[in-house]
Design brief:
The complex is a heterodimer of chains A (256) and B (228).
Chain A: E1 5-14, E2 17-27, E3 32-36, H1 43-50, E4 58-65, E5 69-72, H2 78-87, E6 89-92, H3 96-99, H4 106-116, H5 122-135, H6 152-164, E7 170-174, H7 182-199, E8 202-206, H8 210-216, E9 219-224, E10 227-233, H9 234-239, H10 244-251
Parallel strand pairs in A: 3-8, 3-9, 6-7, 7-8
Antiparallel strand pairs in A: 1-2, 1-4, 4-5, 9-10
Helix pairs in contact in A: 4-5, 4-6, 5-6, 6-7
Chain B: E1 2-13, E2 19-31, E3 36-40, H1 47-55, E4 65-68, E5 71-72, H2 78-87, E6 89-92, H3 104-114, H4 119-132, H5 149-162, E7 167-171, H6 179-194, E8 198-202, H7 206-212, E9 215-218, H8 224-227
Parallel strand pairs in B: 3-8, 3-9, 6-7, 7-8
Antiparallel strand pairs in B: 1-2, 1-4, 4-5
Helix pairs in contact in B: 3-4, 3-5, 4-5
Classes of the chains: A alpha/beta (256), B alpha/beta (228).
Chain lengths: 256, 228
C-alpha cells in the first residue's frame, strides 16, 4: 500500500521566527491524524503548508494522486494544485465564513463545488446538494436559504457538505468544532466520524481540544514551538505521554 | 498468542521534579490460544499497567518485548497496532468511552462495521448480545452516556464481545454487575475461551476468577525490587 501523504522535513519560517521546523510524517488511506499544541505551536502553519496555502522554505509533500501516483505537491503548477484542491482535497475552516460563500444559497454552496469539477446538469446538481444537506442534517426546506441565516453549527455542517460533495480523499480540518456549543460539537463529531468511516477518508485535524482528537483521531502529533515533540497512537499519547510538554498538556485538562 | 519477555515499565513525571516511578521489571509470561489467565496482585501492583501495555495503550520500557499474534508492539508502527486492535486484539475496559449521541446498538455493532462486515449482520449480532445482557430494547436507540453504571458496563462488554477476537483483555468485566448478569458475562468469557481466544483478565471477584481462569499470574513478582 502507498501512503496517501508523505511529508518530509517540512520547514517554514517567518523572517527569523520558526513557523514549523523539520516536520516529517506519513498518512495512510483511511487514517485520521490529529495535530495538537497550544496557540503559536505551528500547527496551523503546518496545515497551511500541507494544503498548499503557504509555501514552505524546504521539504516535500508527496501526495498519491489518482492519475499519476505519488507527486510532490510543492513542485506542481498552481493550476494543478488548484485542481487538487477542488477534487481530491477538502479544507474545513474553523470559521465557516472562510469556507462558505455567504451570499449564495445553501444549495448553491454545495452545487458550486460540483460545477467546479464539471457538473452541468441542474437537476443532478440540485439532487446531489439535497442529498448532502440531508447527510449533514440540514432540512431540505433550507436549501434556498443563505448561510447567513443559519446558526453556527449549521454553517459548519454546510461547510462540511460543500467540502465532501466532490468525494475528496484527504480532508484538512482546522479546529472544526472551535467556537461551537458543546452539544453542537458532539453532534458534529459524530457526523464527521461517520462520514470519515463510510467514505474511507483520510483526514488531518488540527485542534487544541484533546477530547476532540481522542474521539476523532487514530494517531496524534504534538507540536511545540514549531517542532513535533511526540507522536503515537492517540490513546497512547494521551494516556502515557512521554514528553514533558505533553504531560503538562494532558494534566491541564479540566475534568467534567 | 501472547508472548511477553523482559517487560519493564517506568513513569517519568517531568512536571513533578522529573521523578521516575518504576512499576515493572523483567516481566515475562505467555498465554496460549484457548487459555484464560488472571492477573493478580494487590492494588497498585501493576495489573492494569500490564493490561494497558498489552493493548498498546502504554509504552513499554526500552528492551521489552511484547508480542501479540506475531506483532511486537514495542516496534510496531501505529497503523499495525490499529489493524491488530481491529482484527485480533479486543479490550473491555472498566469504563465506556463513546461519542455522545451515538445509539447503543451502533456502539455495540461498531467493531464489526470497522471490519467491513455488512451492516445487517453487525446489527443482528449487536441485538443478540444486548438481549443476552438484558439491556431493555427501549434503550437500544439511545446513547449509553446517560445509562446507569451497570448498564454502561454491560454495553461495554457487548461491544467487546461483538467480534470474536483471538486475543481478549478484560479489566474487571464483572464489577458492578448483579448476579444474573455476572453469570451471563462469565458464560461469554467461557465461550470465547472455548472458541480458542487467548484471554487475560483482572478479576477481583475471586469466585469468578476461579471459575474462568486456567491459571493466575501474580503481578507483584514483576515489581522492580523483586527482580533486583
Amino acid at each position: 500500500m502507498t501512503p496517501l501523504l508523505d511529508v518530509r522535513s517540512l520547514t517554514k519560517t517567518y523572517g527569523g521566527r520558526i513557523g514549523c521546523a523539520d516536520v516529517s510524517f506519513t498518512l495512510w488511506p483511511g487514517e485520521v491524524l490529529g495535530i495538537v499544541g497550544e496557540s503559536g505551536s505551528g500547527k496551523s502553519t503546518l496545515l497551511g503548508c500541507l494544503a498548499g496555502q503557504l509555501s514552505p522554505d524546504t521539504g516535500e509533500v508527496i501526495f498519491d494522486t489518482r492519475a499519476e501516483g505519488p507527486r510532490d505537491v510543492l513542485s506542481m503548477s498552481e493550476a494543478e494544485r488548484r485542481m487538487l484542491g477542488r477534487t481530491d482535497w477538502a479544507f474545513v475552516h474553523q470559521n465557516p465564513r472562510d469556507g462558505l460563500r455567504m451570499r449564495v444559497s445553501a444549495g448553491g454552496n454545495v452545487g458550486e463545488r460540483l460545477m467546479a469539477v464539471g457538473a452541468r446538469h441542474y437537476g443532478d446538481i440540485r439532487a446531489d446538494a439535497l442529498d448532502w444537506l440531508g447527510r449533514v442534517e440540514i432540512h431540505e426546506s433550507r436549501i434556498d436559504d443563505r448561510p447567513a441565516a443559519f446558526s453556527g453549527g449549521m454553517q459548519q455542517r454546510l461547510q462540511i457538505a460543500r467540502n465532501l460533495v466532490t468525494g475528496p480523499r484527504l480532508v484538512f480540518m482546522d479546529e472544526p468544532t472551535g467556537g461551537l456549543d458543546v452539544s453542537v460539537q458532539a453532534r458534529l463529531l459524530d457526523l464527521i466520524r461517520g462520514l470519515v468511516r463510510r467514505m474511507g477518508l483520510s483526514a488531518i485535524v488540527v485542534t487544541h481540544d484533546l477530547a476532540v482528537v481522542r474521539l476523532l483521531a487514530d494517531r496524534l502529533m504534538v507540536m511545540k514551538d514549531g517542532h513535533v515533540i511526540e507522536t503515537g497512537l492517540t490513546d497512547q499519547v494521551l494516556d502515557d505521554p512521554q514528553a514533558a510538554y505533553t504531560q503538562l498538556l494532558v494534566s491541564s485538562v479540566l475534568q467534567v | 498468542m501472547i508472548h511477553v519477555e523482559n517487560l519493564g515499565k517506568f513513569f517519568t513525571l517531568h512536571n513533578q521534579g522529573g521523578v521516575s516511578i518504576p512499576v515493572l521489571a523483567g516481566a515475562g509470561f505467555s498465554v496460549a490460544p484457548g487459555e484464560c489467565v488472571a492477573l493478580t496482585g494487590e492494588s497498585g501492583a501493576g495489573k492494569s499497567t500490564v493490561m494497558r501495555i498489552l493493548y498498546g495503550n502504554y509504552l513499554a520500557a526500552p528492551g521489552s518485548s511484547v508480542r501479540i499474534g506475531g506483532l511486537d508492539l514495542t516496534t510496531a508502527a501505529p497503523r499495525e497496532i490499529l489493524a491488530l486492535r481491529r482484527e485480533t486484539l479486543g479490550y473491555v475496559s472498566q469504563f465506556l468511552r463513546v461519542v455522545p449521541r451515538v445509539p447503543t446498538i451502533d456502539v455495540v455493532a461498531e467493531p464489526l462495521m470497522a471490519l467491513g462486515r455488512p451492516e445487517e449482520e453487525a446489527r443482528a449480532r449487536a441485538r443478540g448480545l444486548l438481549e443476552r445482557l438484558r439491556i431493555p430494547q427501549a434503550l437500544w436507540q439511545l446513547s449509553p452516556t446517560t445509562f446507569s453504571g451497570g448498564e454502561q458496563q454491560r454495553v461495554n462488554i457487548a461491544r467487546g464481545f461483538a467480534h470474536a477476537y483471538p486475543v481478549l483483555l478484560l479489566d474487571e468485566p464483572t464489577a458492578s454487575l448483579d448476579a444474573i448478569n455476572r453469570e451471563t458475562v462469565l458464560s461469554l468469557i467461557e465461550e470465547a475461551r472455548e472458541g480458542g481466544a487467548a484471554i487475560v483478565g483482572i478479576f477481583h471477584d475471586v469466585a469468578a476468577r476461579q471459575r474462568v481462569a486456567d491459571r493466575e499470574i501474580d503481578v507483584s513478582r514483576f515489581a522492580p525490587e523483586a527482580a533486583a
